Structure formats: C-alpha cells, structure tokens
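Weekly sync, protein design subgroup
Attendees: M.S., D.O., the rotation student, P.L. (late)

Item 1: inverse folding check
M.S. brought a backbone from last month's batch and wanted to see whether the design step gives back something sensible before we order anything. D.O. pointed out we never logged the input encoding, so this time it goes straight into the notes. Structure tokens as presented (281 positions):
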C-alpha cells in the first residue's frame, strides 16, 4: 500500500489527541502513513471539504465545530450519520466523499467493555446535556433498548426537542429535577462540557443513586473528573471518557489504512502519559 495520510479537522484542533492514537497504531502495525491536525476555520470548511480529494488526504476525522458541515458535504453517509446529521469520520471512495458517525459506536463499545452487564436488567438512564454529544448518546441508548432515558439540561427547551424527536421513552427534565431522576437511574452519563478543564465544575450530589448504578463521563480532560471522583467515593461503577475516544477512532483507521486496530492498555498508557505531561489544553 502506498503512503497514506489522514487528518483530524477542527477549529481549534491543537488539543486533539487523535494524532496520538492513529500514529500509535500506524507504528504498531508498521503501516506507511501519517495522521495530522488540520485547522479549518468555519468560513472555510465548506470549500475545504468540497475540494477534499485535492487535499492529499485519504480521509479524516472531524471534530467540533464541523461535524454538521461535514455531513452536509458527503456524497454518501452511513445510517447513524444520516440520522444525527453529523459525521465524524470521512473517506474517499471513487472520488466521492463518504462519511459515518462513530461516536455512537465508541460510546457503546467502551461502556460494554468497562461495564459488561450495564444493560442486563431494566435500565433507566439519566443523560446530562442536550447538545450534539447528548443526542448521539440518546440514539445509542435507544438502539440498545434502554427502557427510559431522562434528558436533563440547564436549558429545558433543548432537552424537550430531543425528547420529542426520540419518542415516549425519552423524557425531558429541568436541572432542578435531577435528584428525583438520579433516584430512578441505573446509568448516569455526563454529556455536557461541565467538569472539563477550564469549564465550570459539575457539582451534583450522587447520594440518591442506587449503589448498583454506573456513572459515565465523556469528558476526559481531566481523566478523573470531579463527577467520577465523587462516584468512586460513593462506591458506584465509573466509566471514563478516554475509552470512548479510543474506540471511536477504530473504524476510521480501518477505512484509511486497511487494518482494524486494537484498543489496548498500551494505547491507553500513551494517552495517559500525554494527558499527564501536557496537563490541560
Ligand atoms: P456538544 O454538541 O459538544 O454536545 P453543545 O451543543 O454546546 O455541545 O452542548 C453543551 C451542553 O453542555 C449543553 O447541554 C449545555 O447546556 P445548555 O443547553 O443549557 O447550554 C451544557 N452546558 C454547558 N455549559 C453549562 C453550564 N455552565 N451549566 C449547565 N450546563 C452547561
């Protein structure tokens, strides 16, 4: 196979850990290729993607704020990207730009790995947030047949939009109702930016949660968010955000470089070292 390049497109993109992941796999699998960061400002994204075949890349990941623009630029999209109207993984095939959304896959793959029995009994999930990440997570939980999903958000109308879209198993709640929702929940997912370095803290009291509940934070900088620290202290099962980041990268690498890579402890150690050494973005 000839030398291939892929990239992550975002704005800003300097903080992205995707190059570390893909370069680790390229080196581990002895594949000739590279993976770069491509900062594209919002006013240039449509033109960049329209001419993607001239960029020299075989494909790309797409991060904030370009996932919706990427979806619009596709000639072909997988069912998940088509539903969410957002793509995070692109590749060229016969000159056409194809795309998929692997956030749903990454979220579930890591949850299945970290908490294999999370969905064995009737599940009631509480999702904090109502942005693009929360929507992908609600999609994932519905796909797995979760009986009820409470979407709790600071701005209630945004949660109501998600509830209306996904049907009767999804219920919108105001932040003030959180203690009541936590009492019911067997799975809590933070899909807001709260708790991320540089953002306000996510301060919620986990006492109402059942002792068998699982707490999943998709924030991974810092890796041990205050939410996860509180969950651990309370004896709950915790699932951190780094696994989702690693797993969502797998399908893209396979498309671009032709081999399905493994999410391993070695890769996790590489990322942990970087997060520790570079501190906070
Ligand atoms: P993304 O598409 O990455 O999910 P987003 O659409 O900006 O990003 O959504 C961010 C989420 O974090 C939203 O649910 C947002 O709540 P609002 O809908 O009320 O804006 C939530 N969020 C961000 N900052 C917050 C804060 N200080 N307090 C509570 N929620 C916050």
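Designed sequence read out in the meeting:
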């Amino acid at each position: 196979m000839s030398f291939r390049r892929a990239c992550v497109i975002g704005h800003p993109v300097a903080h992205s850990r995707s190059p570390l992941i893909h370069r680790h796999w390229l080196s581990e699998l002895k594949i000739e290729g590279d993976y770069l960061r491509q900062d594209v400002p919002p006013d240039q994204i449509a033109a960049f993607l329209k001419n993607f075949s001239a960029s020299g890349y075989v494909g790309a990941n797409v991060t904030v704020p370009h996932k919706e623009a990427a979806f619009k630029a596709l000639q072909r999209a997988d069912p998940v990207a088509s539903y969410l109207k957002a793509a995070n993984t692109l590749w060229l095939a016969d000159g056409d730009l194809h795309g998929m959304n692997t956030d749903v896959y990454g979220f579930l793959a890591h949850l299945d790995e970290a908490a294999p029995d999370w969905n064995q009994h009737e599940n009631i999930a509480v999702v904090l947030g109502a942005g693009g990440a929360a929507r992908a997570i609600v999609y994932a939980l519905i796909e797995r047949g979760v009986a009820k999903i409470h979407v709790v958000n600071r701005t209630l109308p945004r949660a109501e939009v998600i509830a209306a879209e996904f049907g009767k198993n999804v219920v919108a709640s105001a932040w003030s109702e959180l203690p009541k929702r936590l009492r019911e929940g067997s799975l809590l997912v933070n899909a807001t930016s709260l708790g991320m370095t540089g953002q306000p803290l996510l301060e919620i009291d986990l006492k109402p949660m059942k002792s068998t509940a699982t707490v999943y934070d998709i924030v991974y900088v810092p890796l041990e968010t205050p939410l996860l620290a509180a969950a651990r202290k309370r004896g709950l099962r915790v699932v951190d955000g780094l696994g989702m980041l690693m797993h969502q990268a797998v399908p893209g690498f396979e498309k671009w470089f032709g081999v399905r890579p493994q999410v391993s402890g070695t890769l996790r150690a590489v990322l942990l070292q970087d997060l520790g050494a570079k501190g906070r973005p």
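Discussion: Residues 64, 129-134, 153-155, 158, 192-194, 200 surround 2'-monophosphoadenosine-5'-diphosphate (CB under 6 Å). The chain has eleven helices and twelve strands.
Action: P.L. to compare against the previous round before Friday.
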